[in-house]
């Protein structure tokens, strides 16, 4: 039996192929992860053949109806926008809050860690998966 890979919500996913969020999401999808887009600008559209949601909560609720859940919240947002994302990641029961290269927010990290989430900051999921560094979460 094949073990399913984790579901990764990509917060800030763009539908533009030249954007890092799209490129990383496509790589992770090709690697076998299920990608769920979260971006209010594209809510209701399909990106990488997956429905895009306005919020983590909306995405989580849709997946729960199918007995699925978001494991990793992979963030392509400004560091200053991370505290509410961390709080929402906690509410939906994610196991990891991942902030991409250049994103560091100690307040968001502390909140997520206190709730039991693994927190990774200033690293790219695409680079880490490609190098075989799964950090115990991928």
Give the tally of β-strands: 7
Radius of gyration: 14 Å
Distance between the termini: 19 Å
Overall pLDDT confidence: 96
Counting H and I runs of at least 4 residues, what is the number of helices? Answer: 5
| Global morphology | globular
Task: Characterize the biggest β-sheet.
Answer: 7 strands, mixed
Looking across the biggest beta sheet, what order are the strands in? 3-4-2-1-5-6-7
- In helices, the fraction of residues equals 25-40%
Instruction: Catalogue the unreliable spans.
Output: none
Report the structural category: alpha/beta
Strand content: 15-25%
Q: What is the helix/strand order? A: EHEEEHEHEHEH
Set out the fold topology.
Elements: E1 7-11, H1 20-30, E2 34-38, E3 46-47, E4 50-53, H2 56-64, E5 72-75, H3 82-92, E6 96-99, H4 106-114, E7 118-120, H5 125-130
Task: Please tag this protein with its features.
alpha/beta; 5 helices; 20% strand; globular; seven-stranded mixed beta sheet; 138 residues
Description:
- With 138 residues, the protein is of the alpha/beta class.
- The chain is built from five helices and seven strands; from the N terminus they run βαβββαβαβαβα.
- A seven-stranded mixed beta sheet has the order 3-4-2-1-5-6-7, sandwiched between helices.
- α3 (82-92) runs parallel beside α4 (106-114).
- The chain starts with 6 loop residues before the first strand and ends in an 8-residue tail after the last helix.
């Amino acid at each position: 039996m094949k073990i399913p890979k984790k579901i990764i919500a990509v917060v800030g996913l763009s539908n533009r192929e030249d954007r890092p969020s799209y490129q990383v999401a496509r790589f992770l999808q090709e690697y076998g992860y299920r990608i769920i887009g979260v971006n209010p600008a594209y809510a209701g559209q399909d990106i990488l053949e997956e429905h895009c949601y306005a919020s983590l909560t909306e995405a989580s609720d849709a997946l729960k109806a199918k007995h699925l859940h978001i494991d990793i919240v992979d963030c392509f947002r400004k560091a200053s926008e991370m505290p509410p994302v961390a709080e929402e990641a906690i509410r939906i029961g994610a196991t990891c809050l991942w902030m991409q290269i250049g994103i560091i927010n100690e307040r968001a990290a502390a909140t997520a860690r206190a709730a039991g989430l693994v927190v990774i900051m200033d690293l790219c999921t695409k680079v880490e998966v490609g190098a075989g560094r799964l950090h115990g979460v991928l």
